[in-house]
Every structure is written in C-alpha cells, then in structure tokens.
Amino acid sequence: MDGKTKNRPLTPPPDGGRPTLKTIAFMTGLGITTVSRALKDAPDIGAETKERVRLVAKQIGYQPNRAGVRLRTGKTNVISLVLTLEEEIMGITSPMVVGITEVLAGTPYHLVVTPYSATKDALAPIRYILDTGAADGVIISRTEPHDPRVALLTERGLPFVTHGRTEMGVVHPYHDFDNERFAYEAVRELVERGRKRLVLLEPPPHLTFYSHMRAGFERGLRDFQADAVSFHHINIDHTLVEIRDAFETLMRSDDAPDGIVSGSGSGAIALIAGLEAAKKTLGKDADMVSKVPSDFLRWLRPEVVTMYEDIRVAGRELAKAVIGHIDGQPSETLQSLSQPEFQSAVQVSIKR
Amino acid sequence: MDGKTKNRPLTPPPDGGRPTLKTIAFMTGLGITTVSRALKDAPDIGAETKERVRLVAKQIGYQPNRAGVRLRTGKTNVISLVLTLEEEIMGITSPMVVGITEVLAGTPYHLVVTPYSATKDALAPIRYILDTGAADGVIISRTEPHDPRVALLTERGLPFVTHGRTEMGVVHPYHDFDNERFAYEAVRELVERGRKRLVLLEPPPHLTFYSHMRAGFERGLRDFQADAVSFHHINIDHTLVEIRDAFETLMRSDDAPDGIVSGSGSGAIALIAGLEAAKKTLGKDADMVSKVPSDFLRWLRPEVVTMYEDIRVAGRELAKAVIGHIDGQPSETLQSLSQPEFQSAVQVSIKR
DNA sequence: CAGGACTACTGTATCGTTACAGATTTATCG
DNA sequence: CGATAAATCTGTAACGATACAGTAGTCCTG
Predict the structure, then answer these.
(1) pLDDT at B349 over 60
(2) Which residues does nucleic strand D approach, with CB less than 7 A?
(3) Residue of B65, B95, B241 with shortest CB distance to A349
(4) Rg (Cα) of chain A, in Å, rounded?
(5) Hey, are the CB atoms on A350 and B241 less than 8 Å from each other?
(6) What is the pLDDT at residue A164?
(7) Domain A179-308 sits in which CATH superfamily?
(8) What letter would DSSP give residue A340?
(9) Residue B125: its pLDDT value, please?
(10) How far is B222 from chain A (nearest CA, A)?
(11) How confident is the model at residue B344 (pLDDT cuts 50, 70, 90)?
(12) Residues of chain A with confidence (pLDDT) below 50
C-alpha cells in the first residue's frame, strides 16, 4: 500500500533552486504534464490528483516561471502603461499608477511603464509593444478624436483601454472624466455667483476632451446666459509662465472676464498668479472654478471652487477595463465615465 | 561564386512572424549559434561574418526575444521600482518614474512598478522579487537606519539602490538628498530674517533622514543661536488635517514659534493652513522655509522660502546606480548626494 | 609530414511551460 | 467476451536563446 510506485524513467531529482513543475512532478510521482494540467484545473485530471497537486504546489510555494509561460504561450502577463515623459505637471501619473497597481495586485499582471518623448512619435511605443509582444494589454492617455494609436492597436488586435474617448467609430474600452458636465456645472456655479463674462482655460485642441469641455462650457453659457471671453488659444499645455502672462494681459484689458473655468489644477495656479499680477483679487474681481486632481488648491486657495477628478479611481477603472478586454469581455461593457465631484467646504482629509 | 552553399540540414524556413535568430541564420546561411555569438561580438567569429549578421539583423529589425533570453540566462532586463501605495502625497512618484525611464530608455531594461501596502510587510515585495527572480535590480525608498530590505537584498546578492541612506555598515549604492544641509540652511535663512524660535516638521523617526534633518536643524540652532520649539512628534507622515490642527494649537499657545522649517511640501500646506487658522500671517508673525518637489508653493505662496528637491534627477541617479551595480561597478562609486537648490525670486518656468 | 595550435563555425542540450498525440486502465455494451 | 467508450495519465516537441563541447580547416613547428 505504498502508492503506485511504477518504475518510470523517474524524472531526475529536481535541483535545489526554486520549485518548478518538475519538482512537483517528482514529489507527487506524477508526470510533468499531469501536474501542469492539474494546476489549471483541466477536465481530464482526477479530482483527487488535482487536490494533491494543489496541496504540494502550495506547500512548496510553487509559482509558474513567467519566462517559461511567456516563451511557450506568448502570454506576457504584462500591462503596459504608455505615457509621455512630459505629461507631468501636478503629477497625474502618481495616483494613476497607484490605482492601476491596486487592481493588478490581485492578478498575475505586472505593470510596465513605457514612456515616450512627446516631441517624438507617439506611435513608437505602441509599435514597440506590438513588434516585440511586450504586453498583453496597453493603457494610453491623451487621446485624440482620430487617434492613430487606437487605430493601430485595433487593427492588430491588441487589447487596450484609453483614458479619454475617441471619435472614430471604433468601439473600444475607455475611461473618461465627464468634462462636458464639469464645464457646464462650472458655468452654472459662476453664474450663480453673479458672474457673466467667463473665460475657459481649455485643453489643447487636438485632444478629444477639448471639444467635450468646450461643448459643456458653451451649453452652460447658453443655458445660464453668460458671455464668453476669449483666451486666444492659450491652453493647459502651455507653460505656467505663458498662462500667467497671457492671463495678466487679459485681466488688464477692457475685455477682462469676471469668471474663470480652469481645465487643469496647475493651470489654475498660473491663472491666479496672472490675476494677482494684474492687481485683481480672486473672489472679488473674479471667481474661479477649477478641475483638480488633488486637494492643494483647496488648502491654499479656498476661494477657488474645485471639482475633483479622482485619478486613482481612473487608474483602477482603466486596469479593470484592460483586463476585461484581455479576457474577452465586449468593449461596450468596458466603458465608463466619471462625474466631477463638487468639493464642499474645507476639512476633507488627505491620506497620509 | 555563390557563397558556400553547403548541403547542411538547412534549418527549416523560419515562419512569418517576428524575426528570430533562426531567421537570420537562414538568411545568412549560418548556424543559429554563430548568429547568436556574432550579435554579441564574441571573439571566435570572423569580422566579416559579424558585419554581415549585424547588417541583416538590423535590416529585418531583429530584437531578441526577452522570454527566450530570460528563460535561458535568468537575465530579466527588468528594474523593479518598489513603492508604498501610500507614499503618494504631492506625487513624488511621477517625476521619479519619469527620471528612471529617461535613463532606462537607452538600455534594454524595462521598468516594472511593484507596490506594497505600507500597512503590510515592506519585505513582501522584496521576497517576491527574490523568489521569482522578477528583476535584475531593485530601487527602494523610505529607507531606515537598519533596513531589513537592504539586509535581505545584500545577503541574496541582488543589485539594488536606495533612495536614502542606511546605517548598518553595509556599503551599497544610494542616492539621497542632503537633508542635513537643507535643515541647516533653512535655520540660517530664518535667523537671517530675525527669527529665533524655530519649529521643525520632521520625517517620521524610523526613517534614516529623520536624524539627518534633525542634525542639520540642531547644528543650525547652535551655530546661529536660535531656539527649538517642539512639535510633539507630529511629522510629515501625519495627515494634513492632523498637521494643521496640531500647528494651529501650537501657534495659539504661549510657545508659538516664529520660524518654521518644513520637511515636506505638502506638510507646508497644512502648516500654512494651521497658522492662518490661528489668525497669524505668514511673513509677518512667522517665516517658513520648506523643502519642495515642485513649484506650486512658490507660485501660490511666494512668502515661503523654498528649497527644491529635484525628484526627477533623483530618479535618473537611482536608475544609473542600479544599472551600475548590475554591471558590477563597486558600490562606493554609486553613491550620490544632491544638494538643496535655493529657489530665488519667482518666475522660473515649469515645463509644460 | 605528424601533430599541435589556432581560427571560424556548428550541433546538441537545456531553461520551464504547454499543445498535442498517444497510452493505459476501467467501465459499458451488445 | 471482444469491442467501444470514458476516464486518467503521460511522453515528445516546441517556444527562442545560449553554454558547451565539439568539428573542420589552416598554418606552423620541428
């Protein structure tokens, strides 16, 4: 009654390093194939065998060798976060990375950060990933209405998700912030405060959310009967110094606005500086509503009405969506839009 | 004269996918081994052959299969950035990641972000990397004087670099900010402004740079003859709300300081809030010097004297150091200390 | 001119895993 | 009872790269 000790070639005793399938095979007396199949719960393996294998695997802390799996199956278990080296102001990357890794922690996926210089080709990192099979899924941001990265990834069938939407008739997973709603509500807020001449610090025109934010802004102007003041092509991708100088000029002109909608938190900082350089006072000469990814403005300039965009949650949504896409869930079910959170009063705590 | 068309087994025509060594071998008529060795410039391959191989490889865009290399050699070509999900305030991660990837871009290394929950075991991700051979090198931060991660990595011989120093008699690569100098200069600055009763918002005591910053602070007090005001164990790891409330209390007490040294930019924000909650005015009732990782404070509160810690540069230094360590350079040559940059006046531009 | 040394290549085995095509045993059926 | 099916298990080959141990030539050397 000592088990089925057949006299098979009896795979040579596995070495001393980290356990592999061979180790388990040796310990259980089973074949390597059997162990492999048992661990992935294949239907042609006996229930008791599976149990035994699982037990041993757990005991010795078996973890599949990623290189082995990847070489054999092509599955990398990698999600690639593609980002511009430049998209850095106000650190949107940090909470994004945190959010993504929170989700990936419960999966076999690793997060690889793949940067590119905005001055160069945004397609380069995508091509690299496609050519080398570097990842099972990709997360991209700063999407454009007709985004060549989306086109390429779709054509080549590599799962991905975008932070931001597109307008190319391609159904794909995305997560986005409702910038239309944000701008609309911002206008409402300003008008309620008696402001009538509003300016918008908008995204650069080539990005998709430019038109979203503009649309919300304009719809707000119509619904709440306010007027637009032009900021002459200055947008959130300009440097803070440029924004400040331009806004100082605007505030000194006859055309000075009395209400400001800022599409970015760091932009808001420059706007405040410009306003003050023009000897105006925030809350008195003008009010401002800004989209923010953190609490700083609220702490330092509580006069500013802030609407919070939770980037960490965005990271989580994006991660869930890529994985869903990889798992074959239909793209339609992997799209989400987050609403701006009005930030009331002051005291909200910041973690750590 | 059609080359040496021997009648070898002539490896079966390589498939249509991405090129491998076999592809090049087929195209050049050489053996796979020869191609492999030629590409790594081995001494036993003819000069002309190397040239030919390199040319073909370049032409068809050959890139070694990472899984193949990793499986055979154990080399992962991965650098792992280990970070706390919580170390997030004021987004130190963003510029860090950018700095690292800037350096890695010129190498075969990929950056994998490996997070852990600070509430759990900081050793867990290190163990994971060691057990699974997930990376060739590791970057860790928030170092302690006797850091178990450093001990483990050293013992197991896995190259790493720390952001911050240790005090365990182990020589290892590091990059650090000179917090001693920062605090010392901060005291000098405050005393020059006529301040005499100084408080320090310090790092949590278990981290190495706690004692550095304290030492600099105390040396400054001695040299410039000022007094310390205790902040009762409040440190930069407390929440902003806690810091603000504690500081408000302190500012209302008889023991109120007139000079503040803030060890973190986000902490400074809370201190300002606390000070103002106590009806005091910055620049009048007290002056403040803060270490900052970005320009925000300078834009919003120019009264604060800021010393800039360039995290992006830190990322670059760290990346260079791990790679150096991997390449076998002696640890002594892979240590660097960055000096605080006094930020003069206002107008410095922020990129993008 | 045998034999040593050197140059320039090459085949085989192997890393850990999985797809695939069996193989063995037991149960079922007419 | 022979045959067929079902249930379990297994060996081989392959993914792409490299370490290692050769194999041919060529050129000396004595």
Answers:
(1) no
(2) A 8-9, 29-34, 37, 44-49, 71-72; B 15, 17-18, 20-22, 32-33, 36, 39-40, 44, 64-65, 67-69, 71-73
(3) B241
(4) 27
(5) yes
(6) 97
(7) Response regulator (3.40.50.2300)
(8) P
(9) 96
(10) 32
(11) low
(12) 1-10, 346-352
Give the C-alpha separation, A332 to B158, whole Å.
45
- As a whole number of angstroms, the distance between CA A286 and CA A274 comes to 12
Residue A307 · residue A276 · CB < 8 Å: no
The full set of domain ranges for chain A reads 1-64, 76-177+311-342, 179-308
**Planar angle of CA B133, B135, B136, nearest 5 degrees:** 105
Place of tokens 């999407």: A143
Sort out which chain A residues have CB atoms less than 8 A from B270's CB and list them. 299
Cβ–Cβ < 8 Å for A237, A207: no
Written as six digits, the tokens of A323 are: 């994985």
Q: Pairing between strand A197-201 and A174-177?
A: unpaired
Helix or strand (DSSP H, E) at B84: strand B78-84
Over residues B182-199, the mean pLDDT reads: 97
Neighbours of A348 (CB within 10 A): 13
Please name which of B92, B115, B153 lies closest in space to residue B314, comparing C-alpha atoms.
Answer: B92
**Nearest chain A Cα distance for residue B129, angstroms:** 12
Provide the β-strand partners of residue A289.
Answer: A261, A305
In the block, residue with structure tokens 């360039």: B310
pLDDT one-digit tens code per residue, A12-43: 555 568 999 999 999 999 999 999 999 999 99
User: Strand, coil or helix: what is B65?
Assistant: coil
Quote the percentage of chain A above a pLDDT of 70: 91
The reply to whether domains B1-64 and B76-177+311-342 share a CATH topology is no
**What pLDDT sits at residue B16?**
65
A156 residue type, one letter: R
Amino acid at B107: T
Distance CA A324, CA B181 (A): 50
| Domain B76-177+311-342 bears CATH identifier 3.40.50.2300 | yes
For B1-64, CATH gives 1.10.260.40
DSSP state of B334: G
The DSSP letter of residue A12 is P
CB B306 within 8 A of CB B292: yes
- Measure the CA angle with vertex A115, ends A110 and A118; round to 5°: 155
Report the SS3 class of residue B87: coil
Q: Which of B89, B92, B295 sits opposite A350 (nearest CB)?
A: B89
